[in-house]
Amino acid sequence: MTRRVALAPAAPPAACKELVLAQAKPAAAHGAADEVQGELSSVREKIHPRAVGGLFAWLRVAAVLLTQLLYYGLPWLQWDGRQSVLFDLATRKFYVFGLVLWPQDFVYLSALLIIAALGLFLFTAVAGRLWCGYACPQTVYTEVFLWIERRIEGNRQQQIKLDQAPWGARKIAVKGAKHGAWIAFSFWTGLTFVGYFTPIRVLTEELAALSFGPWETFWILFYGFATYGNAGWLREQVCKYMCPYARFQSVMFDPDTLIITYDPKRGEPRGPRGKRVDRAQAGLGDCVDCSICVQACPTGIDIRNGLQYMCIGCAACIDGCNQVMDKLGYPRGLIRYSTENAMEGKYPDKAILLRMLRPRVLLYGIVLLAIAAALAAALYVRVPLQVDVMRDRWSLARETSQGLIENVYRLQVINMDDRPHRYAISVLGPVAFHLLAEGPPLQVAALSSGNLSVRLEADPQGLKERSTPVTFRLQAVDDPALERTVASSFLSR
Prior knowledge:
By secondary structure, the protein is α+β, with helices and mostly antiparallel strands. It is 44% helix and 19% strand. It contains 19 helices and 18 strands.
């Protein structure tokens, strides 16, 4: 993990709008340009985040455990004799517990993506970068890799001492053990990822026999390498320089958005002091300038310089500062979640929660609930039956020996249900059509498709137009609720 000086100047403690301007404002003088050039050419300094405990640290651990239990556990969960969540690209079937989706159901995926985007907008408007601080895969896997690093190399001071020590047998052994654990974890992460597309039990059997196919081998190594590189080496560089969300998240902030803030009125002037020193008589604020908030930050920023786009909202600085305040007997909250308006004294901290129910948040919430309800309703009334009617391209219309007009159609029926069904076919139209089906009644196995050729005959005396609308109706014999109608046309000549 490395540290870089921010290219954009830090915003004042309570100025979301200034943050955007700070990111976009170019250097106005040659001195500033030279400074930026020096920062770009400076040597990176590795960041060793300090481990801190507290409420937000516990919430991050809970988020890591929840997300990873779901990620690693779902492929192993069985549902009706098959993998509970499986995206079978070979057969173009997507299993999500009891729901089986086909490529024709792509609209549901689109709705899910819209819900995810609106959810991100809602959470950001309410409390800033909650996603980045607690649930983003980059944050989650970085937390896992940091935990492994601390278990093998020790705490922050021990890691720094080890990095500064000359290479020797012990350093090689410790570093090798750490990277070996990282690589093993990354490999299992890649294997689990591919297990959502190839049954995980099949993959583990192939792993035991070392018989992965080229497709599985590529994606296991690719996803594993991405995990190892991003969480083990790049870390905060992904959040600060590669993630686009860091650049545009400020436009979703407003003066009532919860952000991590340092209280300069209470903390300044900062300075070290003993526990028994009266800070009022010494002319000092509550900040003892211990820099623990900087040491705990995974991106290496100083939150006391104000809101910065590099802040991922993990709140590690809050936990670290609260520990210091507890030791000194000072009130907690020198660094805390607050809003721009609250920091400016426009309303007390007690009113922050009430300000969450503002028009912007309510609009996001209403739209999000409406789309989620529409998606749930669409899935509930979804009929697991797809019917396509195709006309015989070689014979559009012909006259039979009885003087009737005949059209030939081919019906392609996709049974999306996990049970086989037998279907009855009928025809609706403005004239009397006579339906003739070729072969036995159509029966389609579970999660498969079937074809049936049918002929329609009609008396030419009843056909007033060259093209007459006709509707094919398919209904499952064993389940009348499975019904689908498809419109087509009957050509008279």
